[in-house]
């Protein structure tokens, strides 16, 4: 990032912190609730965005994140409910995500199906399968994941509740931000991944197996979406309902674009989106303004459209050059 | 006798419908430069891809350092010391030089890429071979000549004993090309061997130790510069005597058809690609625009034909002034355009020849009426074009993608010449096609000129410019360096202008 | 049948068969009998004239939905917004249908249909214009617009346009006036006829007109279209508007024909089905009709299948997803049927999110 951009960022952050402090002084509980809700909503979007960015940096578009969220949530919920173990449920969710990632890879990379069509197939399949096998009577006997306090850090007012007193998968997501960042920008895997997304021919001629790396990346990226599904069912909501992903798989793509396909950028964008959701919940709870719920509900989607439209106009948010193109050897 | 660094022994390779290589044998010895010569479609690329491990031969085998090998892929070839510098650079544009060089062979420290070590090695390498480069420069910001250096360094970083250079001078000025040939000479003195693929006869004679000529997938000649000449090589390449210089009559220019007044045009990134260029083209003359690609030619052509807007200045076609025009408006003024990239702009591959024959005129009578296409009229038109322009095809309803490069180009030329035109804009009109088609198209362009059409010819092939033009303009870095009469021009003069050097001063 | 027609339908046909086979396996997992289930499905969809009527009625919005996707495909765009375009078309048609009285059928009905079509066209046009001016990918925009449309139409049906007659609390509009209801000619619903005529019209536009030539050119090679003097951005926006119009008409036909009103929560999922149908038809407008009839038959028979064999009607969604998979990845079918690979059959749209 250039120097003046950095300065702008710090200035913006300081302004933000001041604003938050003012609101907290005015109405502590509400501010805390909104900020906690922000982090809660952001976690899912960040996981989806990381899934998307690993694929896209490799040159593969994944619009099936929505379906991955849904089917993984279903798997996580069903297994957790059957075994009374949240841990096993989480593993099941991740596993389902990996499986769906593999299917996307098989279709888009292996069978050279158009990537958008492949992702759509995943979405439609997920919706159909979850509806077909949905058992209304099932419930999560053990209850969802509960908050874990990180020692004395959790006692800090506001920040303590919002950041240091969260359920486990939220912490896991934050840790993953660092892992994915280091992997993507400092490791051998990361450099090769970025190369195949920009110029697969160049990577091919130095002996990198483009198709195999894409296969691998899309599959493990699915695991991240699977974690997101597990998070949705076992930590955020605590149950499963039809079409519960609610469009957030697509919002994750906007978050990814907005965050310039980097983990920390995506998290910042996710916080922004999460904020609008949390705000919406707060307004509905208190009926603060007399806005019909449907209009508030539209907000994240309209914001997404604006983000995508603007990103096209702002040249700096460019796509990886080989994004969406099927790679043919030689 | 020197060791055979790289060789092919009776190599054959077949693709659906074509025998690309037929029992080809050649050998490169240490410290020598082998030129592989042939026209487009002769089988050079296929052979080279086999030598580099991209393809496996159907028959015969590859030899590396005296040993028979069966290459499993490019990385196998690389590990055995074969380095390839591609015609179209295989570099990742947004990454830095150092990253591009070490990609695939990255030095590792504690599980992560050790860029410090990589940088050290790159600097050492660039000093040793005299190929200075800034390791942290971003590749897409580098000029073409430097990008080529990165490609060469990539091969040297992997301890290449052999450098295969595929058409390396296409993107260089004559002076840069000479410099490159000098670098190659020096490299061979350190023990490297070089395989130099080209269709440029002059370069072959200038630098090669050994020459192999391919035609239709077979070796038709093995010789050395001492034993042959440009004409001799051309005959071997084509199989008959070839007119290297086109027969043309003296031009009799008439009124001004195209006039550019301080035209400035931006490129895709918003930078000025063409800076206040002014010139004119008259009836019955060919103005050739010379220059290495990337100096504003593309933007010039696109601005004149309406594919791109003008940032400032204006252009006049006939008596009409344009500061911004659509392709259609400009075409209505009698302007024809042979685009430089026929796959991208000139044709739609899945469309039939019929549909392509009216690609940019379907909306006019008689091809359509009140919004409905008249397929019978279109078909007759297509048949006419195919007939008159010698387009080899089984019928007019096959998709255009089934045609060979030369026939595609003839179809495009036929389409553009089917009306009376006042101005012909021809951009790289003979790129990538066989000599027969080249001769045909050159003849047709000259015929247009003799009929009184004004012709703007833009080409990176200096021989084509020198052979056809009546006047020559040179573009460098978006500036019009000079406009010379053909009689007063030669390679050296034009070459200097192409590199930005005017008379006693040079452009900074 | 000519050889090329046979070749063209063999893959979709095989996809359907494979989908049904795997569906049968799923039925077995529910301890039901595939034979009973499929027989009930068939009877429920085509067993008597009532069943046939149901099938035609189910197929009608599917034809429009399929056309909405197929038409956009021709310009190289992926219209996933059929759902939203249909919803706004349905609600605005209903709005005109119940909101105006005193007009004769000859005027009221076409106007109501037109209102639905225009609403859909606007909805699609937004995505198309954004794509043309900012390069915003229509996949994301149309999906987002689906959600926005869902919210918007819910609100309309629950507030200003709510049916407050009697003791109604459901979010829906009042019944449309009789003068805006689509009539039936004997056993054939006029809505279905309208759909078929629309399909034929679409085909004619694409194959015979200069506009169709422009649309296909943009879809095949937008650079060459540029060179040809075609205004690519304008065509993209127009194509999405036409696609939206088609879906909107479909929604209008639902409101004015089958349902007689707009009700929130009904007609969900029709957008995605349009995708399956468009791909089954290989984006050919004429092929959309038989594809829609097939899916329509399955949906019409689903209730009977549940009644007779105890199989959940959502199975139809799963089978559709399977069919979509096999149509999208025909290579599996080819391998089983030992057919030769034909690269031109692969539908390709792929590109990034911004300008290409």
Can I get a quick summary?
The complex is a heterotrimer of chains A (330), B (508) and C (356). By secondary structure, chain A is an all-alpha fold. Chain A has 13 helices and 2 strands.
CATH topology of chain A, by name, is ABC transporter involved in vitamin B12 uptake, BtuC
N- to C-terminal distance of chain A:
36 Å
Arithmetic mean pLDDT of chain A: 86
Oligomeric state: heterotrimer
Low-confidence stretches of chain A: none
Low-confidence stretches of chain B: 504-508
Work out the radius of gyration of chain B: 24 Å
Using the coordinates shown, work out and report the CATH topology of the largest domain in chain B. Rossmann fold
- Sheet having the most strands of chain A: 2 strands, antiparallel
Second CATH tier, the architecture of chain A: Orthogonal Bundle
**Shape estimate of chain B:** globular
Give the tally of β-strands of chain B.
26
Q: Give the CATH superfamily of the largest domain in chain B.
A: P-loop containing nucleotide triphosphate hydrolases
Helix and strand run of chain A? HHHHHEHEHHHHHHH
Query: Fraction of residues of chain B in helices?
Result: 25-40%
Biggest interface goes to: A-C, 50 and 51 residues
Write up what this structure looks like:
Chain A is mostly helical and 330 residues long. Chain A has a single domain (31-313), classed as ABC transporter involved in vitamin B12 uptake, BtuC (Orthogonal Bundle). Chain A has helices at 3-26, 28-57, 65-83, 86-110, 115-133, 159-163, 168-186, 188-198, 200-205, 210-237, 248-258, 263-286, 293-313; strands at residues 148-149, 165-166. Chain B has two domains: 4-238, P-loop containing nucleotide triphosphate hydrolases (Rossmann fold, 3-Layer(aba) Sandwich); 256-506, P-loop containing nucleotide triphosphate hydrolases (Rossmann fold). In chain B, β9, α6 (174-189) and β10 (193-198) form a beta-alpha-beta unit. Chain B is globular, with a radius of gyration of 24 Å. Chain B starts with a strand and ends with a strand. Chain C is mostly helical and 356 residues long. Helix content of chain C is 72%, strand content 1%. Chain C has a two-stranded antiparallel sheet with strand order 1-2. Chain C is globular. Chains A and C meet through α5, α11 and α13 of A and α6, α11 and α13 of C.
